[in-house]
Structures are given as structure tokens and as C-alpha cells.
């Protein structure tokens, strides 16, 4: 009997330890984080916070965030919040080491992106360090300096005249690359499109397509991977360390080109009209009438090259995949391209901007791709003051994540949101904030038109002349910058001439 009692006590003891450990491990430390960030706001503000959970001390909710993005369902992170706290469209969380608010409705996204007085840039530490720190980059300069620099960077890639200038050499780069592809057994489409877009960007920046080695795209890929490092630890083996190493190489190469251009411009007795971005930056003056700081110029060039080639290459890869997964849509896009060629006079060589503007159905397919492919995952801001929205507070200093993917995948805005349906854009004018792949407000992407033009030119020559077959059509996709694990390995063959 006594031994039975001892056994029973032991069972109870083990049970108590297990339950205690469970309570400690699951609940208590989470309460610490909640307390650390939330309770110290004071009772009034605390009770006005949106619903959500602050996760674990130090790491916040990064584990469930990464788990979602490593699964096949990247939306599970947001869906989980909706499931637990309802459709409030605004949630509190803790990500990338910061207390944060996620906004998911068109109205809130628009508000955060357009009200510059209340929300400033708020990207994670990893991105700031990799793109040049808090002061010496587009992210760190004052509002007025940002406005001036932005104007300067945008002028060569916006407007009818500037865009028309780029078409000729984009065509050359695309056509010669496509010809190379058919001589190899298979290509990684994403990698090859990065090279094409990189050449285009170096041409716009430096005036020459091959002035910067193509191998830089590998360093850029490493830099890109580190931008949203959950653990920005500069120790070998960590993604962030690899990204910092890549940054060093890229900075050295860009600096060498800058030095070379400075010498050339100094030796040039006749001042030319400068149109390359590098020359515009070398000649620009800051608010005090001083030439721009060298480090700022290097960081601007580095960021511009990155922003200009990685994103467009991803989007063009998904466009190609979606089109080939939907033969009837592919056929309609192809017919539109044939019509454009048929309409033109026999003396015309190459595409014009007007012809590109006539690619209406392709343009809808591009918008649909931008909606679906979810690049970038979110746009980051920081509240400069306490802001009240929909009855909730966004506390001063907290990060705000504009979760554009949640807006783009909302079934109330886009029916059957997971389907690729270019026709949903027929006569559809998205309401403000409901289509924001390029952001909104004063920091909207200045390269939106250029990237669309690059995609149109690529699809034009690709669909008219080549056949595409994926080697692993079921290749899994990795997030948060969605890409097929095999970088879209494909065999490209030439279509017989009609
Ligand atoms: C599919 C292609 C692209 C996508 C999805 C994309 C997306 C975006 C988004 C969402 C922003 C706003 C970020 C924010 O508000 O914090 C942005 C900004 C920016 N993008 Fe793009 N972009 C693309 C192509 C390009 C290209 C081709 C260029 C250059 C030629 C470019 C250059 C920039 C620059 C310089 C900024 C910073 C603007 C500023 O801070 O004022 N992007 N991009």
C-alpha cells in the first residue's frame, strides 16, 4: 500500500513538473515580453493597443514568422493572427527585434505610406546596415534631401523621352541573352533574368552595359538574402555575415568605378550633357551647396542597382511561370504580340514605347503577377508620434509593417485571390491602397514604369521566338522573396520561323 502511495506521489510530482515547465515555457516568458513592451506604455495606451501577441523575449514572433515563410503557406502567419484575434486589420507583434504593428487594410496601408509626418522609414537593422547605415543612404537623409535625391535618381528612368532612350539597348541585351540560352542544355531563368536586368541597370547608371562585371550579381544575391536577417549577427556562418562580406566587395567595385569616372570627368575639357546616374550624382549638390559625400554616392549606387535588378528579375520569372501554367492566357498574350508586329511598317526595327503601351493584355498579366508574387513582403515604417487609427494606438517609436501581401490576397478585394486572372483587371480601377506592389506616397518606387517596360520587352521577344519548358515544374518555392528552389531551371528552344 505504502509503495503504491509513493508511486502515486511520484506520478503527481512528474505531472506537476511537466505542467509547471509547460506553464513556464509557454506562458510566463511571453508575459515578460508583453509586460516589457506593452505595460510600460501606461494603462491608457496599453489598453488601446490592437490585438496580437508580443511573442518571446528577444526573439518576439520571428520563429512563427520564419516557420510560415519556410512552409508552403506564407500567408499562415497573418491568417493565424486573423484566426486568433478576428478581422481587425491591425495587429501588434514583435519582429526583427522591435515592437511592431502590422496593418493589412487598403485604408490603413495608404495612411501609413502617405502620411510622412507620422511615419518615417523603419526598415530592420540588417537592411539599414547593408544599404549604408542610418545617415548615408536614401533611408537616412533628411526629408528635403530625400526629395532632391529622389528627383535626381528618377529623372533618367521616368517620362516618355527617358524611357524611349532605354528601349533600344534593353532589346539588344534581351535578344543577345536569349540567343545564348539556346546553346546550353538548360538555364536558371531567375539567375539569367537577374543578369539581364543587371546589365540594364549598369547601363543606366554608368552608360555601359558591361562596365561592371556580371559576377557581381552573385554578390548582390548574397546581399539581398541578408536584408531581412532575423539575426543580424556578423559571425561566419550567418546569412548577415555573408551579406556584409558581399557588401564589401560591391562597395570596392563601385568605388573603383566612381574614382575612374571622377578622373575622366576632370580630364574632359568640354563639359558634356550628363545623363548617366553616376554623373548626375557626381555633379549634384546637397542642401548646403556642397558636392555629395562620397560614401552617400556609393550607397545610393549600391541601393539603386539592387532595387533595380533583383525585384524585376523575380517578377519576370513569375510572369513567365504563370503564363506557361495557363496556356489560354499565354496564347492571348502571344496573339497580342503578333498583332503589334503585324501592324508595324516593314522598315521599323524594334519596339517603340507606343507599342509597349499598346500591350494592354500583357500589362494586366504583369499587374496580376505583381499582385500574386508578393514582392516585397512588407514595407517598413516607424511611427514618429502616437497615432490613433480605427480606435487603436500605434505608439511612437514602434515599427509599422505595411503588409501588402495581405491586401493583395484579400478575397473581399480580389475574388479567388490565389488564381492568376489577368482579366480581373478589365475595367478595374483599384481603390486607393488596394494595389501597392510599388508602395505609395512620396517613396513610391521610381522604377515601376521601367521594370514594366523591361518585362514587356522580355516577354515580347521570348514568346515570339522561343519555347520554354521547366525542368522541375513542381520545384518548391522559398519565401519571403518568393523564388523556386531551382531558380526556375528550364530548357529553352527556338520556335521554327513561321
Ligand atoms: C518589380 C520590380 C520592383 C518592385 C516590386 C519594386 C518595389 C518597390 C517598393 C515597394 C518600393 C517602396 C519602398 C518603401 O516605400 O519603403 C520601392 C522603392 C524604390 N525602388 Fe523599386 N521596385 C521595383 C523595381 C525597381 C527598379 C527597376 C528600380 C530602379 C530602376 C527601383 C528603384 C527603387 C528605389 C530607388 C526606391 C526607393 C525610393 C525612395 O525611397 O524614394 N525599383 N520599390
Automatic annotation (TrEMBL):
The protein's UniProt keywords, in alphabetical order, are: Heme, Iron, Membrane, Metal-binding, Monooxygenase, Oxidoreductase, Transmembrane, Transmembrane helix
Q: What membrane topology term does the record carry?
A: Single-pass membrane protein
Name the source's superkingdom. Eukaryota
This protein's major location comes to membrane
Q: Where are the transmembrane segments?
A: 6-25
**CDD domains assigned:** CYP90-like (cd11043)
Q: Which Gene3D superfamilies match?
A: Cytochrome P450 (1.10.630.10)
Q: Where is coiled-coil annotated?
A: none
Q: Where in the cell is it found?
A: Membrane
Family designation:
Belongs to the cytochrome P450 family.
- This chain belongs to the protein called Cytochrome P450
Origin species, per record, is Hibiscus sabdariffa
Amino acid at each position: 500500500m505504502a509503495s503504491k502511495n509513493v508511486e502515486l506521489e511520484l506520478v503527481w510530482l512528474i505531472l506537476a513538473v511537466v505542467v509547471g515547465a509547460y506553464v513556464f515555457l509557454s506562458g510566463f516568458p511571453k508575459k515578460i515580453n508583453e509586460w516589457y513592451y506593452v505595460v510600460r506604455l501606461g494603462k491608457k495606451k496599453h489598453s488601446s493597443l490592437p490585438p496580437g501577441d508580443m511573442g518571446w523575449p528577444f526573439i518576439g514572433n520571428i520563429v512563427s514568422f520564419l516557420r510560415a515563410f519556410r512552409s508552403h503557406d506564407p500567408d499562415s502567419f497573418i491568417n493565424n493572427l486573423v484566426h486568433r484575434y478576428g478581422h481587425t486589420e491591425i495587429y501588434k507583434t514583435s519582429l526583427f527585434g522591435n515592437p511592431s504593428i502590422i496593418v493589412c487594410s487598403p485604408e490603413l496601408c495608404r495612411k501609413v505610406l502617405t502620411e510622412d509626418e507620422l511615419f518615417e522609414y523603419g526598415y530592420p537593422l540588417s537592411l539599414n546596415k547593408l544599404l549604408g547605415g542610418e545617415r548615408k543612404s536614401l533611408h537616412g537623409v533628411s526629408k528635403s534631401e530625400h526629395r532632391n535625391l529622389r528627383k535626381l535618381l528618377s529623372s533618367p528612368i521616368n517620362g516618355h523621352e527617358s524611357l524611349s532612350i532605354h528601349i533600344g539597348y534593353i532589346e539588344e541585351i534581351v535578344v543577345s541573352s536569349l540567343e545564348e540560352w539556346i546553346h546550353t542544355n538548360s538555364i536558371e531563368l531567375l539567375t539569367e533574368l537577374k543578369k539581364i536586368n543587371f546589365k540594364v541597370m549598369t547601363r543606366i547608371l554608368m552608360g555601359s552595359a558591361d562596365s561592371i562585371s556580371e559576377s557581381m550579381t552573385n554578390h548582390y544575391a548574397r546581399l539581398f538574402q541578408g536584408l531581412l536577417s532575423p539575426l543580424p549577427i556578423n559571425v561566419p556562418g550567418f546569412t548577415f555575415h555573408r551579406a556584409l562580406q558581399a557588401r564589401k566587395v560591391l562597395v570596392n567595385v563601385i568605388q573603383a568605378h566612381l574614382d575612374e569616372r571622377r578622373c575622366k570627368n576632370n580630364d574632359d575639357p568640354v563639359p558634356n550633357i550628363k545623363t548617366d546616374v553616376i554623373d548626375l550624382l557626381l555633379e549634384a549638390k546637397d542642401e548646403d551647396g556642397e558636392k555629395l559625400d562620397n560614401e552617400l554616392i556609393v550607397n545610393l549606387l549600391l541601393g539603386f542597382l539592387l532595387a533595380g535588378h533583383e525585384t524585376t528579375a523575380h517578377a519576370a520569372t513569375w510572369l513567365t511561370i504563370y503564363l506557361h501554367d495557363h496556356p489560354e492566357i499565354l496564347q492571348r498574350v502571344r496573339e497580342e504580340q503578333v498583332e503589334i508586329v503585324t501592324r508595324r511598317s516593314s522598315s521599323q526595327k524594334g519596339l517603340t514605347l507606343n507599342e509597349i503601351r499598346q500591350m494592354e493584355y500583357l500589362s494586366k498579366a504583369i499587374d496580376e503577377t505583381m499582385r500574386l508574387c508578393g514582392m516585397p513582403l512588407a514595407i517598413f515604417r516607424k511611427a514618429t508620434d502616437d497615432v490613433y487609427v480605427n480606435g487603436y494606438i500605434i505608439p511612437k517609436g514602434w515599427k509599422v509593417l505595411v503588409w501588402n501581401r495581405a491586401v493583395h490576397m484579400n478575397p473581399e478585394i480580389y475574388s479567388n485571390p490565389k488564381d492568376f486572372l489577368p482579366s480581373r483587371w478589365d475595367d478595374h480601377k483599384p481603390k486607393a491602397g488596394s494595389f501597392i506592389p510599388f508602395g505609395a506616397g512620396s517613396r513610391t518606387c521610381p522604377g515601376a514604369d521601367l521594370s514594366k517596360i523591361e518585362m514587356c520587352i522580355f516577354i515580347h521577344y521570348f514568346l515570339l521566338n522561343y519555347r520554354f519548358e521547366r525542368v522541375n515544374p513542381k520545384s518548391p518555392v522559398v519565401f519571403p522573396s518568393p523564388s523556386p528552389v531551382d531558380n526556375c531551371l528550364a530548357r529553352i528552344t527556338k520556335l521554327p520561323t513561321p
